[in-house]
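Hey team,

Filing this mostly as a record. A colleague (T.K.) asked me to run one chain through the structure pipeline before their review meeting, and I want the input and output archived in the tracker in case anyone asks later how it was produced. No errors, nothing strange. Just documentation.

Input sequence:
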Amino acid sequence: MAGKTVATAVSEFGASIKPKLAGTAITGAPEDQLRGPLETLFKDLAALAGLSAASLDMVGETTLSHLKTRPDYAVVLGNALVGFIEVKAPGKGADPRKFSDPHDKEQWDKLKSLPNLLYTDGNAFSLWRDGKLEGTIVHLEGDVESSGAKLAAPASLLSLIGDFLQWNPIPPKTAKKLAEVSARLCRLLRDEVIEQMALGNTGLTALAKDWRKLLFPQADDPQFADGYAQAVTFGLLVARARDISLAKGTDAAAQELRKTNSLIGTALRLLTDDATNQHALKTSLGTMTRVLEEVNWHTISKDKPEAWL
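Output structure:
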């Protein structure tokens, strides 16, 4: 890494990608060929931004590209979730508002609930927060399919990647803002539950069966998903109102919540303690706990009980 600059990092990125894309017909989908070089590029840029490349972990979902609620990468820095990356085929661009493919359009409709999301097709990089473009789209100079080591980048690339990697949730300061943030995350959780049930997730299917038996006999899968998402969101909000940390995950929070509110604590644990379900819903649950961890209910409510209303 000694002596490496943005220019050399991007040049190496281009040099490593060109031969991979030349054999796309044999080796697989174009976007899959970007993965290894992208991971190296991000570690290089993280170091250049003054961050610890060794503590950067890009958790890839190489076999799950069909999922609409799970981006290609979850990015962890220093054991904290910082955001997600969605990788598209070179030439598709990095503006999801302009995608014409039905899968891409539906995926964007779901992923725009995420508070820190980066799109790239190797040629362009864009940063999105709660569905809004942050700054401008950064375009590399050249083309990943043909430029090789001559690929270059404007100085704004390092700023964009640094901004993405250093994201921290902004604590909502009013009950209205908290409701807006919670609603976005609740919708994402609902969509992920619906998607996982359609895939035959056994844990969620069993939960839905119990839900119908005990509470709502007529509830279909979308209605169960909606109720599930609202119950989990409410449980996590109650935990934060009790000053219970979400940093160790939903199960630990549920255990602690049971000490002061046994009903909601037990319900939250029953809905989230299954490890398989936690993995299946990790995009939404991981984001929700990361964002809501920053909630200070005393600041929001000014310690007035009616703030819940």
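Quick notes for T.K.: The chain has two domains: 6-165, 175-308. The chain has a mean pLDDT of 91.
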